[in-house]
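The following block was generated as part of the benchmark described in Methods. Ligand: C2E.
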Amino acid sequence: EAKAVGRGTHCLFETQMDETARERTVMERELREALVHGRFELHYQPLVDLDDNRIKGVEALVRWRHPERGLVSPTVFIPLAEETGLIVPLGDWVLNQACRDAAALPDDISVAVNVSALQLRNRNFAQGVLMALAASGLKATRLELEITESVLLDDTESNLETLHTLRRLGVRISMDDFGTGYSSISYLRRFPFDKIKIDRSFVRDSAGRSDAGAIIRAIVGLGASLGITTLVEGIETEEQLATVRAEGAQEMQGYLFSPPRPVQDIARMIADAAAKRSVASAAAA
Ligand code: C2E
Ligand code: MG
Ligand code: MG
Ligand code: MG
């Protein structure tokens, strides 16, 4: 009896494995087609200065415009793109498109681009970044690259060398999802990051807890003593905003201020904010 159930479970498991494998194969083929046909698009989410509520930059977040499934989230296809190596051409497209879009935004707005481990491991990565900057006319100082701990996990020396090269050229380097890995803190000693992006799990889990903010306060303090800007991700409520402000973080990002939006919408948002500021300063004068 138990054996029969066991065998049945095994069969079901194998069937599910086959199904998953088939789905992956289909998605991989569709991803290749999407690259060829230009079916990816970038949405941008503001990175906001907590001192004056001004938009300092935007993060480029890729979406896949699927003919049947609609707008597909990167959490669905980025892992497969990384496993299949498709992240290299996709990442190159993202970098070039983000630089072009940012070049059309005001000079004081920077653009942050997420970079996967496989992209950075590529010998020509720094060269590709320089080409994207040259082709778009974007100044290197307006580009931020966001990397996660996994980027520094393997092949570390040459990855660090590439990052140093880019940083010398003026590109800024952020550590994304800080605190979710095993040794985020030790990486702060290995590379002079310009910014720490504190993962949104820290704000989400802090709601209604008496220790709300304690971890954020500690990371902000760590950043301050190392001269690194701290940004808190995933701010959804006024209460969370008040907490991160009280703990002294410099920047925030989250649905409360704005979700990721198409570039035209973000450009309008930035222009509207600038117009309001000039009205306010004219009234004050
Ligand atoms: P990430 O780099 O940590 O980006 C922030 C993610 O948090 C985005 O999800 C954003 O939409 C979401 N987010 C922002 N504010 C809030 C909030 O208040 N609440 C909640 N619940 N979520 C918020 P998205 O766009 O789905 O991207 C997910 C991840 O996919 C990114 O996380 C990044 O790791 C990866 N990704 C996105 N675009 C690219 C890309 O061009 N290249 C690479 N390599 N990875 C990318
Ligand atoms: Mg990011
Ligand atoms: Mg992040
Ligand atoms: Mg995150």
